[in-house]
Amino acid sequence: MPQVDWSLLAPQLVMTGFALLVLLLAGIRGERPGAHPEAGWVAFLGSCAALALCLLVPREGSLWNGMYVWDSATAFFCALFAAACALVCLASTSGPYRGEYYALLLISTVGLMFLVASGSLLMLYLSLEVSTLTLFVLAGYDRNRDRSAEAALKYLVVAGTSSAVFLFGVSWVFGAAGSTRFADLNEAFQGLAPGYAWIGMALILVGLAFKIAAAPFHLWAPDVYEGAPSPVSAYLSTASKAAGFLAIGRLLLLVLPGRSEAWVVFVGALAVLSMAFGNFVAIVQTNVKRLLAYSGIAQAGFLLIAVAAASGEGLSAVGLYLLLYVFANVGAFLCVYAVGEATDSHALENYDGLSRRAPLLSFAMLVFLLSLAGIPPLAGFVGKFLLFSAGMRSGLWWLVLLGAVMSTVSLYYYLLVAKRMYIHAAPENAERVLVPAPVAVAIGVCVALTVLIGLYPGPWIAWSEAVGAFLVGL
Question: Could you tell me which of 5, 54, 175, 394 has the fewest CB atoms within 10 Å of its CB?
Fold first, then answer.
């Protein structure tokens, strides 16, 4: 029996252990009413421990005949997932969440970690299902709200459909190539004419397009983000999306031979549809959670510009942008969470005069919105510059030009929220918005990193470039 290097599984094992510990604490509490903040703190500590291990585990290694691969890209994204989980767990300790909620968050993160470490289509599918099933339960966690139940049902139906499409594609690829391992598929594709295998890869990419909420496979995102608890929406819109992008990047770079023009056109079309639809529909939204959902669809379009470049530079740009996107988008959703808890609504009108009712919260929200819009000197500007640079160097000037135009369009609805906060007068009976300490700390961390990455991008760019260079060299 082959030896297993358990150090390569250390982050996943730690998070699984803490998930079991959280469930044990929930069992000790029993059916007594009330939240389980102590379970949230345990989950937060587990996420921080996994984050540290992601940075300490050796950079290269594989298990189970190459089905599981730990490399610099895996470490980068696993650290990102652990950070997102830690922030969401921290903010959730102030809410009405019980032990099983935190256990599901940890298990979902474990699934995403295995997803980005996948060295075969089979491992990719299994880990995708683990994260999908846990996120389905989390989306419907608030059983007292019809919107939450609706969100869970829609997510289950769409996720099930995308999984079926993905698995159907895997069956085509396996039938043509005789393997599901990425290394074997690359060799097999070199000698295959376009046919079954290529149809299978198209179906697999369509299944992953659902995961990243790229148009026209985005219809689930606005309703699910609106109905799910805001911390879950923050996690779903960032960590889950990041995992899907790395999976697509690995397939394009490691499986498909060369820079296939057919795939460039396919991914480019997804980018155009996502940027156009996401930005223009976001303009007319009156619910801030739906606005951020359509913003996320547009952001997926910007990321797909660099994915279409199918280069190491493009993947490193995707990695850096996802890093800053996680902190900006999680921070924005946590601001929405704080306002929603105070006003019991996510309507845009609730942000009228927010700068006078919660000045620090308004400033944080403004930072996140401007970063998502790509305004210097915040992190979003650095990320979009690298995305567009990767597209230009690959000759995708038409995509970059459209991306620049769509970035300008996005500025309109981001500033619309800022206008509500800073220019509109607050309602006469409006009270101050009090932000719980854990939520304030999580938002503060997101603000600090959003500003820090924008002002000192060098180390972060070097880290993401190492990831891209490693994947190209495989």
Answer: 175
